[in-house]
Design a protein that fits this description.
Layout: E1 13-14, E2 27-28, H1 39-50, H2 70-78, H3 91-107, E3 119-123, H4 126-147, E4 156-160, H5 165-173, E5 177-181, H6 192-198, E6 203-209, H7 221-235, E7 241-244, H8 252-255, E8 268-274, E9 286-290, E10 302-304, E11 311-313, H9 323-361, E12 364-366, E13 375-380, H10 388-396, E14 404-406, E15 415-420, H11 427-445, H12 452-472
Parallel strand pairs: 4-5, 4-6, 6-7, 7-8
Antiparallel strand pairs: 1-2, 3-9, 8-9, 10-11, 12-13, 13-15, 14-15
Helix pairs in contact: 2-9, 3-9, 4-5, 6-7, 9-11, 10-11
The structure holds pyridoxal-5'-phosphate.
Pyridoxal-5'-phosphate binds next to helix 4.
């Protein structure tokens, strides 16, 4: 079959030789083609182009799940045509989401009565979950201020400078001032003392992170709770806490059950977690859980009935897929507490293999902690010949995707490389990665030195600019 040529400029079209068995002309890149092509050709063209993407399993930048069991893949494909929002038509899917919400709320020690239902919702990821939690705090604070006859036009939120970009998005999109606690050398998470100092009568909540994106460290939520409770007592304010447990929410309950970071702490009013990170589901699912009904203002919940019965909804978008909800339910019942614990222990053990291997080279300082998210963040001890960005670039040649980035203010002079250990990153791969890092160092050592320390200094400046840019465009490694 020969199609007439549509695109006039060659560079605006997609060429494909293999698919030319079916299509002997190129397709326009930015305009919808005039004519149809056979399904085999469409498949081939797209599949071929996608081969140039990185291999997700070797993408060590991402916390997001890249492997699931084939049985779950079957469930995902079988439900790919179900719109989650059609709750009346797919009542079982809705029921499964409610079960997940309740299971996660219990995992986070929500103070629920015997037959009391948990308050929470499935979201597209932690970002949507955080927008919803933030909105609930903002509205509660506004209602209280209005009732007291006080101004409510200058809400703020207190976080560490290490927050993920979604908090900055929340602040900008929903007009809340973001008050960030600066980091310092060797201390890369929010200091609870400094956070509480920043709290004022306009603070809608303090957001703590259980598993910093930058180095995996858990922030001290218990200390924050205690310091904030003291301040609340003195001032009469009721400033609450949100815990961004995007990664840590599916780690701490299994590895550190005694660690108090969740609803056991009275000021923690809501928690988000990414189902698609250590919840072990493919990209597209997160959860937000509220401590109780009182913490989610009723006016934010919409009730719709045109799909059948009355359906309460509190999400930013309307339609979405059902597959991820079903996949989350699969993982929860398939693995159970025992299975999640095994997976997390295994990830920690593999993180230790990598950490020890890197330390044994004598070339790196490890800046991640052993008891946070299973990841290894590390810096070069000596940057006089090459820096972490060079190591990252050269590792690409071996197929590894390992990001390098600068820390936020005031630790921006620190550059780290970060490897996230997921379930599918085995001990063998960890050993292999150490071997390849050694080879890269050897290759870089053999190069003539870069043009003195100015080059390194420029690299730091450029990478800081890149970090800020990436943060703006949501490209910072998640
Ligand atoms: C601490 C933290 N919060 C929020 C997010 C955003 O999560 P999601 O990708 O699920 O929207 C991330 C992503 O890495 C994260 O690390």
């Amino acid at each position: 079959m020969v199609l007439s040529r549509i695109a006039s400029e060659t560079d605006a079209s997609i060429q494909s030789t293999f698919a030319s068995r079916y299509v002997q002309t190129s397709l326009p890149r930015f305009r919808i083609p005039e004519q149809s092509i056979p399904k085999e050709a469409a498949y081939q063209i797209i599949n071929d182009e996608l081969m140039l993407d990185g291999n997700p399993r070797l993408n060590l930048a991402s916390f997001v799940t890249t492997w699931m069991e084939p049985e779950c893949d079957k469930l995902i494909v079988a439900s790919i045509n179900k719109n989650y929002v059609d709750m009346d038509e797919y009542p079982v899917t809705t029921e499964l989401q409610n079960r997940c919400v309740n299971m996660i709320a219990h995992l986070f020690n929500a103070p629920l009565g015997e037959s009391e239902a948990a308050v929470g919702v499935g979201t597209v990821g932690s970002s949507e979950a955080i927008m919803l939690a933030g909105l609930a705090f903002k509205r509660k604070w506004q209602n209280k201020r209005k009732a007291e006859g006080k101004p409510c036009d200058k809400p703020n939120i207190v976080t560490g400078a290490n927050v993920q970009v979604c908090w900055e998005k929340f602040a900008r999109y929903f007009e809340v001032e973001l008050k960030e606690v600066k980091l310092s050398d060797g201390y890369y998470v929010m200091d609870p003392h400094k956070a509480v100092e920043l709290v004022d009568e306009n603070t809608i909540c303090v957001a703590a992170i259980l598993g910093s994106t930058l180095n995996g460290e858990f922030e001290d939520v218990k200390l924050l709770n205690n310091l904030l409770a003291e301040k609340n007592k003195k001032t009469g304010w009721e400033t609450p806490i949100h815990v961004d447990a995007a990664s840590g929410g599916f780690i701490a309950p299994f590895l550190y059950p005694k660690l108090e970071w969740d609803f056991r702490l009275p000021l923690v009013k809501s928690i988000n977690v990414s189902g698609h990170k250590y919840g072990l589901v493919y990209a597209g699912i997160g959860w937000v859980i509220w401590r109780s009904k009182e913490d989610l203002p009723e006016e934010l919940i919409f009730h719709i009935n045109y799909l059948g019965t009355d359906q309460p909804t509190f999400t930013l978008n309307f339609s979405k897929g059902s597959s991820q909800v079903i996949a989350q339910y699969y993982q929860l019942i398939r693995l159970g507490f025992e299975g999640y614990k095994n997976v997390m222990e295994n990830c920690q053990a593999n993180a230790m293999v990598l950490k020890r291997g890197l330390e044994a080279t004598g070339r790196f300082n490890v800046v991640s902690k052993d008891n946070g998210v299973p990841l290894v963040a590390f810096s070069l001890k000596d940057r006089s010949r090459h820096d972490e960005f060079d190591v990252s670039d050269w590792l690409r040649r071996y197929g590894w995707i390992v990001p390098a980035y600068t820390m936020p203010p005031d630790a921006q002079h620190v550059i780290v490389l970060r490897v996230v250990i997921r379930e599918d990153f085995s001990c063998t791969l960890a050993e292999r990665l150490v071997g390849d890092i050694k080879k890269v160092l050897h290759e870089l050592d053999a190069l003539p030195p870069k043009n003195g320390s100015n080059v390194i200094a420029m690299n730091v400046v450029n990478s800081w600019k890149k970090f800020v840019n990436d943060k703006k465009t949501n490209r910072v490694i998640c």
